[in-house]
Amino acid sequence: xxxxxxxxxxxxxxxxxxxxxxxxxxxxxxxxxxxxxxxxxxxxxxxxxxxxxxxxxxxxxxxxxxxxxxxxxxxxxxxxxxxxxxxxxxxxxxxxxxxxxxxxxxxxxxxxxxxxxxxxxxxxxxxxxxxxxxxxxxxxxxxxx
Amino acid sequence: xxxxxxxxxxxxxxxxxxxxxxxxxxxxxxxxxxxxxxxxxxxxxxxxxxxxxxxxxxxxxxxxxxxxxxxxxxxxxxxxxxxxxxxxxxxxxxxxxxxxxxxxxxxxxxxxxxxxxxxxxxxxxxxxxxxxxxxxxxxxxxxxxxxxxxxxxxxxxxxxxxxxxxxxxxxxxxxxxxxxxxxxxxxxxxxxxxxxxxxxxxxxxxxxxxxxxxxxxxxxxxxxxxxxxxxxxxxxxxxxxxxxxxxxxxxxxxxxxxxxxxxxxxxxxxxxxxxxxxxxxxxxxxxxxxxxxxxxxxx
Lengths: 145, 299
Known about the structure:
The structure holds two protein chains of two kinds.
Chain A lengths: L7 H11 L3 H14 L5 H4 L6 E2 L8 E6 L5 E6 L5 H14 L4 H5 L12 H4 L1 H22 L1
Helix pairs in contact in A: 1-4, 2-4, 4-7
Chain B lengths: L8 H4 L7 E2 L1 H7 L5 E5 L6 H4 L6 E2 L2 H5 L10 H10 L7 E5 L1 H16 L5 E4 L2 H7 L27 E2 L1 H7 L4 E3 L3 H5 L23 E2 L15 H11 L7 E5 L4 H13 L4 E5 L2 H5 L20
Parallel strand pairs in B: 1-5, 2-3, 2-4, 4-5, 6-10, 7-8, 7-9, 9-10
């Protein structure tokens, strides 16, 4: 899939990162990290409903909902001591919210490497975000099956 | 040594007590001339969330590695990095970080490759500092650039390469990864991205001593008697041994390198930073699986 076919939300986030100097990209990632929404009430006491992203060294848990209109909602939780992982999750939560299941399944697997963050955070760390996206897609596939 | 060592009795039993400082000591010495405090974390944004007042950030991935070759930075690059962080050759450098000082120990080991004399760890690291409610700030630290000489990196004494490990088989090897990685079990499921090595298991004869065993539940290093039990009685190390430690990319084994060298006083310890990501993908190197260390291949 060509990068230009990204949904508006994710394309906008990508452009926001690419417009910045590398050092400032880290600051933007920190802002995303601070914006990761709290879990809704119904998930707060249900760690069993979440899937751990094993590829991230910090504990991050995700759950995907696909509603009756086939719109995707992603929920994620990660500790405050893991701001980078929280930032990655927050980008995906904000970028994916409300997309259709087929839009999510069509997302480029390497979206995380389009953000211009590889030099700022290192390729090893970007892999965690790539893994997160792969697991999100797998959950979407399971929900619509 | 620019700043006097921490005289805490707790450290006195270690081989090189001057390599550790306590949270009390550090708080009372903050701002002292000649002292530079460095934060080095697994999470590249953690410093920005809040750090010890005046501390500078050095990131292992983005600052200490060569961006192209799988190697550490050169003498010129290290000199430029140190100078930009206000570190001179005489500075007392105290490094702290997240996860029991995992990456802080890695940074300390890289400083040692360049022969920086006075580099210490904050016992307990970032978590201990924060748990004790000590001051943390998001203010940008004001750094007065220093000058640092270009020093050629000296790898041989503390760094092992793959061929060194092959020659070493039969002498003590410590695998500091988790038991699952050591035995060669795979926990990754199909359709998930794989990273790392083509084969699972460990280097034949290696003893498995997960790195975090050296830390107590509060993140501080264990007392000498406990460390002796883990590494001497448990893993069979004896004085005079030449030891190589490894993990996945050499980060967790830097922590063990610190323990063996500075706390237990072993004089010949090397870190194999190629570690399992190299060994587990290299062609025709011997591998063992399962819980047993395995035999060194006949030569």
